Amino acid sequence: MIKHIVIFKLTPPYTAEEKEIFLKRLNDIFGPLGKKFDFIIDYKTGINILEAEHAGDFVINSTFSSQEDLNRYIASEEHRQAVAEASGIRKTKIAADYID
To answer: Are 59 and 48 in contact (CB under 8 A)?
Structure first.
């Protein structure tokens, strides 16, 4: 199995209200993707609850049976569209893919 973890950290400046809106928007964009593909084993999104400088703000935690399935997901029109929709939100991204 392949774990695919993506963490976004919003890039300041933003108000508390803007942060809440941006994080909800990221969840609205990426959350439904897990139900769009029958080859995804597990797919969860979450908004961080820890207020710390080192903490990310939003996470996608997904599981695929193979690297090929992960590649299918990344190359899919639905994923590319989600990435494009989220591009208007200022953020940095870090990802890790590993064998579980």
So the answer is: yes
Confidence (pTM): 0.94
CB 48 within 8 A of CB 56: yes
State the Cα–Cα distance between residues 31 and 81, nearest whole angstrom: 13
Residue numbers of the domain that contains 64: 2-99
Long-range pairs of 50-56 with CB within 8 A, sequence gap ≥ 24: 55/9, 56/7, 56/8, 56/9, 56/94
Res. 43: pLDDT tops 90: yes
Question: How far is Cα 93 from Cα 37, in angstroms, rounded to an integer?
Answer: 23
- Specify the CATH number for the domain of residue 11: 3.30.70.100
Tally Cβ neighbours within 10 Å of residue 62: 22
